[in-house]
UniProtKB/TrEMBL annotation:
<dbReference type="Pfam" id="PF05303">
    <property type="entry name" value="GSKIP_dom"/>
</dbReference>
<dbReference type="GO" id="GO:0060828">
    <property type="term" value="P:regulation of canonical Wnt signaling pathway"/>
</dbReference>
<dbReference type="GO" id="GO:0019207">
    <property type="term" value="F:kinase regulator activity"/>
</dbReference>
<feature type="domain" description="GSKIP">
    <location>
        <begin position="34"/>
        <end position="134"/>
    </location>
</feature>
<dbReference type="InterPro" id="IPR037395">
    <property type="entry name" value="GSKIP"/>
</dbReference>
<dbReference type="InterPro" id="IPR007967">
    <property type="entry name" value="GSKIP_dom"/>
</dbReference>
<protein>
    <submittedName>
        <fullName>GSK3-beta interaction protein</fullName>
    </submittedName>
</protein>
<dbReference type="GO" id="GO:0005737">
    <property type="term" value="C:cytoplasm"/>
</dbReference>
<dbReference type="InterPro" id="IPR023231">
    <property type="entry name" value="GSKIP_dom_sf"/>
</dbReference>
<dbReference type="GO" id="GO:0051018">
    <property type="term" value="F:protein kinase A binding"/>
</dbReference>
<comment type="similarity">
    <text>Belongs to the GSKIP family.</text>
</comment>
Length: 138
């Protein structure tokens, strides 16, 4: 994997691509590093699962990252994160099963909601607590 210290737009500008070139489609788009996205996903919902972390065994790239999650019910999953969303790729940490055809979910909340009743309850309670706090503040 090639690592750089500049983003795609800086690189295009530094290489002298013209405004009307084939590279104009990249303008205004952010090239995402899926490892950073995966870390953000983990930080968002860690409170509502038993364990969750970005895989250090499976390869992360700009277009894919893998997240291991253990629900409060003690079920383990390996999740694939891509631009298409998140999906279960194995029922164990740090593995992928190509024969598994699971649907993509747009958000980690949707995916965990379908996998874990305990997550659903914890997330709902956290949401209620935040709403009550907002109500007190106003």
């Amino acid at each position: 994997r090639l690592e750089t210290d500049c983003n795609a737009m800086e690189m295009a500008n530094n290489m002298g691509f013209e405004e009307d070139s084939d590279y104009r489609d990249f303008e205004g788009t952010d090239v995402k590093d899926m490892r950073l996205e995966a870390e953000a996903v983990v930080n968002d919902v860690l409170f509502a699962v038993s364990n969750m972390f970005v895989s250090k065994t499976l390869p992360c790239a700009e277009d894919v990252a893998y997240i291991n999650v253990e629900t409060r019910e003690r079920n383990r999953y390996c999740l694939e994160l891509t631009e298409a969303g998140l999906r279960v790729v194995a029922y164990a940490f740090d593995q992928t099963d190509d024969s598994l055809q699971t649907p993509y979910h747009e958000t980690v909340y949707s995916l965990l909601d379908s996998l874990s009743p305990a997550y659903r309850e914890l997330f709902g309670n956290a949401l209620l607590q935040r709403l009550e706090a907002l109500k007190k503040d106003s």
